[in-house]
């Protein structure tokens, strides 16, 4: 998994038609779910900073961690280029390197929890998130709509097109489902113009298509309360969002 995101980090922004606009939008939407702040926020799967930078620019005190040191370092650099402070560190979300109760909010967005492939992995990550949250602190997770996806088991994700100085970049995924119907391997293609032709880069990883019921059960078992789902139509976020509270 680290190798996948180390490799993707320099190109990750090309997933978005306009990365800065997406950062601003996601920061605003997630900020609404956080409530009045500023808050001490840990983004424990910060990647190159799409959510973390948006939240930092909105005035929250954000720390980012990611399994990929390349992605985490880029998040800090991109934040600084936009006038925001975003300290980051390379860390596995199953082993968060923070003292208990130091954050008001823990964010784990962009389907990152789906990269935890077993129940013990999910349990370890959620236990760590609970540990670093203060009492009554907020957990915020976002995932793909796996309830719908598992009903249909698609073999591909829709292509995405972005523009850069070299021309259009096309990104798409092929999905190969495991026999259990829950896990799938992703082949992640990026096509970039090169000398009148296309240069193709392929990266591979595996995800666990956790349904709302499965993830709700894991979150409740980790000791969280007031578990709620916020659908894209109401939240404005592009994925379903789960929020929950650490007991007060």
Which helices and strands appear, and what pairs or packs with what?
Elements: H1 2-8, H2 19-34, E1 40-43, H3 50-57, E2 61-66, H4 69-81, E3 88-90, E4 103-108, H5 119-132, E5 133-142, H6 146-152, E6 156-164, E7 167-177, E8 183-194, E9 197-208, H7 212-221, E10 225-230, H8 232-235, E11 241-245
Parallel strand pairs: 1-2, 1-4, 2-3, 4-5
Antiparallel strand pairs: 5-11, 6-7, 7-8, 8-9, 10-11
Helix pairs in contact: 2-3
Question: Describe it for me?
Answer:
The strands form two sheets. This protein has a seven-stranded mixed β-sheet with strand order 3-2-1-4-5-11-10, with helices on both faces. A four-stranded antiparallel β-sheet has the order 6-7-8-9, with helices on one face. Strand 4, helix 5 (119-132) and strand 5 form a beta-alpha-beta unit. The chain has helices at 2-8, 19-34, 50-57, 69-81, 119-132, 146-152, 212-221, 232-235; strands spanning 40-43, 61-66, 88-90, 103-108, 133-142, 156-164, 167-177, 183-194, 197-208, 225-230, 241-245. By secondary structure, the protein is of the alpha/beta class. It folds into two domains: 2-146 and 210-245, Rossmann fold; 148-208, Single Sheet (N-terminal domain of TfIIb). Helix 2 (19-34) crosses helix 3 (50-57). The radius of gyration is 18 Å and the shape is globular.
């Amino acid at each position: 998994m680290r190798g996948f995101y180390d490799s993707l980090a320099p190109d990750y922004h090309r997933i978005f038609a306009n990365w800065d606009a997406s950062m601003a939008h996601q920061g605003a939407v997630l900020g609404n779910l956080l409530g009045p702040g500023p808050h001490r926020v840990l983004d424990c799967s910060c990647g190159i900073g799409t959510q973390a930078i948006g939240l930092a620019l909105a005035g929250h005190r954000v720390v980012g961690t990611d399994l990929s040191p390349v992605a985490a370092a880029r998040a800090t650099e991109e934040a600084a280029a936009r006038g925001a402070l975003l300290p980051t560190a390379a860390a596995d979300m199953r082993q968060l390197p923070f003292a208990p109760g130091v954050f008001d909010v823990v964010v784990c967005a962009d389907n990152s929890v789906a990269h935890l492939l077993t129940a013990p992995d999910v349990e370890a990550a959620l236990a760590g998130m609970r540990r670093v949250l203060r009492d009554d602190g907020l957990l915020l997770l976002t995932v793909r709509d796996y309830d719908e996806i598992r009903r249909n088991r698609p073999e591909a994700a829709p292509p995405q097109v972005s523009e850069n100085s070299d021309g259009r970049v096309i990104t798409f995924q092929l999905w190969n489902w495991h026999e259990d119907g829950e896990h799938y391997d992703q082949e992640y293609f990026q096509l970039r113009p090169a000398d009148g032709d296309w240069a193709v880069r392929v990266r591979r990883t595996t995800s666990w298509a956790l349904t709302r019921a499965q993830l709700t059960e894991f979150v409740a078992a980790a000791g969280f309360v007031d578990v709620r789902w916020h659908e894209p139509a109401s939240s404005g976020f592009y994925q379903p969002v789960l929020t929950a509270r650490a007991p007060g």
